[in-house]
Design goal:
By secondary structure, the chain is mostly helical. α4 (100-114) links the parallel β2 (80-85) and β3 (121-125). It contains 16 helices and 5 strands. The mean pLDDT is 91. The chain has helices at residues 3-19, 23-42, 61-76, 100-114, 130-134, 136-140, 145-149, 152-160, 168-171, 173-183, 196-213, 258-266, 284-297, 301-308, 312-339, 342-371; strands at 48-53, 80-85, 121-125, 188-191, 227-230. The longest helix has 30 residues, at 342-371.
Length: 376
């Protein structure tokens, strides 16, 4: 490929990544997501979902209401669900992995406690699936350095490192995510709008593989071009009114006991107006607590606010605490049982890793056949 062709390709991809978050594109994605929801109701087995988390700390209520509850819902609707514990991605921007084994097992405990069923959902780790990671090599041949550097998520992740030199793993983060999605031929990925450029990069890699290397079977490409299931979840703020973050200590973790939850919520930021209303734009801190109470109790936030009325911040915090502790009591009880049996958690991972390896090796074999790299 000539320099001019590479430049033209990079520009086209940059345009595609930018387009993936434009207003018109978001409208199309939302419309398609609604159509996919209807298709899931009609025929859930046609979809395979890939999602996951980095094991960097304990999961919290923001994770639960943002993504975890939806994973359980998809599983229960009959969608093939694959959940990745992205242990290799812990080192994209860090010098060490920390207490990685404990964090991985904690993550698995969270998954099972909220209702993910290892008989229906495949839970696996990056580092245990060599064939998945080997897909990085042909995939890296399909992208350019400048293309990766323009990826919005790579840019934001690099800025978060405080100006340290970018590691090769951080630079190729979008390619690794493409391998995560495509190794199991997932055709549906739950994402927020900020993650759409990553999914678009995955679609580009799938398309380029077909164009450059061909197919193992003439009637179908090796990889699907996965679609977005755009999340409608509202982002919860932390108890300090800022972005919820494990590092800031402003979260309510899934495994927290009722007393610790009450103490955290008692310190939550509100405002001076005793009359409680749900006004996310005008009163973000108060509205965040109202929303949390509504999500935990399955009610409308406007109704929660109206019921509290002139009760003030103290009443609001009491209502939130009761709703959260009631909703998560069975989750916490189940989680405590799971954490007490690490052998079972390892069995779940062993079974998931075995399934993931079988699929990854079959996909890699198909890749080799498409590339003409079968020598026996």
């Amino acid at each position: 490929m000539s320099t001019e062709q590479i430049a033209a390709t990079d520009a086209a991809v940059s345009d595609a990544l930018a387009e993936s978050t434009s207003d018109a594109s978001l409208d199309r994605t939302r419309a398609r997501s609604r159509a996919i929801e209807a298709e899931i109701d009609a025929n859930p087995t046609k979809f395979r979902v890939l999602t996951g988390d980095r094991p960097t700390g304990n999961l919290h209520l923001g994770h639960y209401f943002g993504t975890l509850a939806n994973r359980v819902a998809l599983q229960n609707r009959g969608v093939q669900t694959w959940v990745l514990v992205a242990d290799y991605q812990v080192i994209t921007d860090r010098d060490a992995v920390g207490e990685i084994q404990d964090r991985v097992l904690s993550l698995v405990a969270d998954y099972l406690a909220i209702g993910l069923d290892p008989a229906r959902t495949t839970i696996f780790t990056h580092s245990s699936v060599p064939a998945l990671n080997q897909l990085m090599l042909p995939f890296l041949s399909l992208v350019t350095d400048s293309e990766l550097r323009r990826n919005p998520t790579v840019k934001s992740e690099f800025e978060a490192t405080g100006g340290r030199p970018m590691s090769g793993l951080l630079l190729t983060y979008p390619v690794h995510q493409a391998a995560d999605i495509l190794f199991c031929k997932a055709n549906l990925v739950p994402v927020g709008k900020d993650q759409l450029p990553h999914l678009e990069q995955t679609r580009i890699i799938a398309r380029r593989f077909d164009e450059r290397y061909g197919r193992a079977e003439a009637d179908r490409p090796v990889f699907p071009q996965p679609e977005a299931l755009l999340s409608a979840a509202t982002n919860l703020l932390g108890t300090d009114g800022q972005k919820m973050s494990k590092s800031k200590g402003n979260t309510i973790e899934l495994g927290m006991d009722a007393d610790t939850t009450a103490k955290r919520l008692k310190k939550a930021v509100t405002d001076a107006d005793r009359h409680i209303t749900y006004d996310p734009a005008g009163r973000p801190e108060v509205s965040n607590l109202v929303l949390l109470a509504a999500l935990a109790s399955g009610r409308d936030p406007q109704d929660v606010a109206a019921e509290i009325g002139d009760g003030g911040g103290g009443t609001l915090k009491r209502v939130v605490t009761e709703a959260v502790n009631e909703h998560f009591a069975p989750v916490r009880a189940r989680r405590a049982e799971l954490v007490a049996d690490p052998g079972y958690l390892r069995q779940v991972l062993d079974a998931g890793n075995e399934r993931a390896n079988a699929v990854a090796e079959a996909t890699l074999d198909e890749v080799r056949r498409a590339m003409g790299m079968i020598y026996t």
